[in-house]
Design brief:
elongated, alpha+beta, 4 strands, 3 helices, 83 residues, four-stranded antiparallel beta sheet
Length: 83
């Protein structure tokens, strides 16, 4: 399984509903939010087989603006081998 960064932007108007929907899906403990700082976006890092599966953790209404970005790490050896 790969790891994905989920970004889920929403409007200030939709802020409360977005939080409630994520609460009901059970992913509230996996999510970070910056709404209190004026940037209405939630983030989560999850494991999934692909980006489509990763995006499914987001409730249907905000899913249209959701991005699932595959994460990777580099070892020191990989970095040293880069030209």
């Amino acid at each position: 399984m790969d790891r994905f960064l989920i970004t889920s932007p929403h409007t200030e108007k939709d802020y409360s509903d977005a939080l409630k929907q994520v609460l009901y899906t059970g992913f509230i403990t996996h999510s970070d939010w910056v709404c209190a700082d004026g940037e209405h976006t939630g983030w989560a890092i999850i494991e999934a087989k692909d980006a489509q599966e990763a995006a499914m953790v987001v409730p249907p209404s905000p899913r249209s603006t959701t991005k699932a970005i595959r994460l990777n790490k580099f070892s020191p050896e990989q970095i040293r081998g880069m030209h």
